[in-house]
Every structure is written in C-alpha cells, then in structure tokens.
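[step 3/7] inverse_fold.run input=structure_tokens len=236
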C-alpha cells in the first residue's frame, strides 16, 4: 500500500508544489506522520469532506486527484482547484477546529491518507518545526484560491477564462511533436463551475477553439498545439 513516504519520493516535480510540504520536513517527522496515517482507496465522485462539516483532520492525496469547491446557498458551485498527488487538504480546519470552508470530492479513483485532527495536533506538538512548513503551505493554498477567484471575477470573457484554465492544466502536461498533451476529463458542466459560466457557453467555446485548431480532443486527452496561439486568441 502506498504511503506518504512513497508520495514524497514520487512527487519531485517542481510544479507539484504540494509535495514540497513533505520535502521540507525532516525524515524523522515524515516517519512520525506516516505512523499515524490511515490510507484508504476511494472511487470517483466520493466526498472526503464538505463545507460546514466539523473539523476531521488532514487528508494527503497519495494517488488520483481531488476536486475542491465552494457552494452558494442556492446550489451554485465554484471549483477552486484540483488537488493532485502529494497535496495535503483540510489544514485550515484541522488547525482552527472550525468547520471546513470547502468541499473535497474525488475526481478519479483515489488513494488518500487521513490523519485525525487529534493525531495531527499531537504530531505538531512533537515537531514544532512543522509550524513554519504548515504556515507556508496555508499561504500557498490561499494564493491559489485568490488566483482562481481573480480569473473568474476579473477575466473579461469566457474564451479568456477557458484559455487560462487549459493553460494552467497544461503545465503538468507532456511535450510532444504536436503540442502539449495532458489528461483533461472534466465534464463541460464542471468546466463551467471552474470558470463561472454555463455548460452551454463552455461547449460553444471549446467548439470554437477546436475549429481554430487551438485545441484537440481524443477521449480524455487534450492537446494544445501552441500555447502562445491559445493565449493570444483569448487575450491572455
């Protein structure tokens, strides 16, 4: 069964910022945290925790991806980001003891390690150096949330918002002879929740991108032939 130690070893890519949380810890601290983890496999579309849930603890993504969102009282949803392998979720709630401010739901089948709030606070007490690392991670997560809200609220058009989203996802993609290729299996409705627009607008915009050969779809794989062209078309 994969553990946090395996995750640290397997997440050395610079753009996998979540893994830096563990890379900054001493080997002793990582081993201690690993000893109190409880890895569990989850199917796709399984909720790990939701807004207003009592503080449970922290969740470390070992495999797969987790969708983080906030919801309005009338049922509208804004997806803040997709958490990937090596990222730690629920820090704010675990530290404050307050209810969660967001909802976490598996996007694909996932393996996630949970550490209860009591055990995590005990770990922090045993390793005071972890406070600085946790503070930096919270700052990083707030920065990502602000960037997403800036895109949704301040970008002027749906094409610009969608282009920014695709370009962001492409950062972890693979460079090929035909462009940057990456996995992108969000539904049009989920894309709309990411950029604050309707499913119909997403469908029309993606169709326009494809007609202009700015993107290409094959199943759940998306290819961007030219990032520069996509950014220029959308006015990014």
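[step 3/7] decode complete -> sequence:
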């Amino acid at each position: 069964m994969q553990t946090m130690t395996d995750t640290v070893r397997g997440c050395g890519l610079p753009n996998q910022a979540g893994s830096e949380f563990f890379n900054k810890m001493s080997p002793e601290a990582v081993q201690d945290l690993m000893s109190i983890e409880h890895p569990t496999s989850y199917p796709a579309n399984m909720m790990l925790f939701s807004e207003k849930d009592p503080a449970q603890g922290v969740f470390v993504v070992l495999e797969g991806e987790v969708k983080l969102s906030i919801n309005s009282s009338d049922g509208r949803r804004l997806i803040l980001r997709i958490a990937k392998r090596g990222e730690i979720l629920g820090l704010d709630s675990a530290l404050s003891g307050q209810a969660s401010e967001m909802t976490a739901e598996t996007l694909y089948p996932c393996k996630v390690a949970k550490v209860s709030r009591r055990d995590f606070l005990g770990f922090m007490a045993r390793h005071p150096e972890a406070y600085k690392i946790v503070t930096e991670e919270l700052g990083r997560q707030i920065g990502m949330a602000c960037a997403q809200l800036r895109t949704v609220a301040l970008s002027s058009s749906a094409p610009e918002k969608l282009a920014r989203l695709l370009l962001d996802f492409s950062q972890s993609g693979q460079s090929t002879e035909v462009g940057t290729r990456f996995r992108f299996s969000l539904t049009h409705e989920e894309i709309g929740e990411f950029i604050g627009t309707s499913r119909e607008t997403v469908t029309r915009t993606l169709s326009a991108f494809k007609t202009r050969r700015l993107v290409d779809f094959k199943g759940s794989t998306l290819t961007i032939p030219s990032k520069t062209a996509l950014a220029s078309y959308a006015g990014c």
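[step 4/7] annotate
Residues 93 and 171 are 29 Å apart (CA to CA).
The radius of gyration is 19 Å.
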